[in-house]
Amino acid sequence: MTPQVQRFAPGPSAVPHAYAAAEQIFAEALRDFIGELCLLDGGVLIGWIRGERHGNIADIVSSSAELFFKESVLTYADAADVCLDWGRSMQVVLDLEFAAEPMTVFFKLVLDEVFAGVAIQRIVAEDTGAFSLEGFAHAVRQARVGHA
Predict the structure, then answer these.
(1) In the structure, what pLDDT confidence band is assigned to residue 3 with cuts at 50, 70 and 90?
(2) What is the pTM of this model?
(3) Domain boundaries, the chain
């Protein structure tokens, strides 16, 4: 856990256009998961982050994800931080991974007092030449529970 937290704010993304479009698709797909995760008391989550209780965080991420995504698709990446700056809303940032054929998405889930969002850090695809936004959306849909 490092004290240097990059502040995330709602609004236009500073990432490349392709990632911005992917973030929008991804955020919509994760909406139910984020809602479920936010049922956990924020004080408990902050305590786990400060105490470096990565196993507890991984369990709650897994439990929240299992309702909406296939097993082991959405996992905690053993990194989290809390930003408690005077005059600003509290912010919790969890590093997560979304692994669904044919890609893995490394992203930060940002839980703020005012908003929740995703910040894609990197997308690794098996065939980067054939990878498209449509393919991304399809892979995300296929990773949901109930899809073959």
Answers:
(1) very low
(2) 0.84
(3) 17-142
